[in-house]
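Morning, I've got a small favour to ask if you have a moment. You're getting the sequence in one-letter code plus the fold written as C-alpha cells. Thanks so much in advance, here it is:

===
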Amino acid sequence: MLISPAYAQTAGAAGTGGSAAFMIQILQLLLIFVVFYFLIIRPQNKRMKDHKAKIDAVKKGDQVVTGGGLIGKVVKVEDSVVEVELAQGVKVRALKSTLTDIVDPTAKPAND
C-alpha cells in the first residue's frame, strides 16, 4: 500500500541493466588510465632514462651544469662523484646525481 506499482516496475528493470552500466564505467576508467600512461607516464620515464644515460656518460673535459646553476669543466670522474673546475684553481666535488646538463662548449650564446 505504501509503494506505488510504478516504482516496483522500474526497480526490476533497473536491476537487469546494472551490470552493463558497471562495465561501461570500468571501461571509462581503464581508458583514462591508458591515456594518462601514453601522454604522461611513458614520456616522463623515457626522459628520465635518457637523462640518466647522459649523466652516466660524463667524462673528463666535459662542461656541465650543476643543480645549483654553476657551470664548470669536469676534471676528475669517480663512481658517483665528479670534480668540477669552476674557475682556474677553484675545484668542487659534486655528486653525479646533482648534474643537470652537459653543455656543448662550441655552442654560441643565444643572444649573439
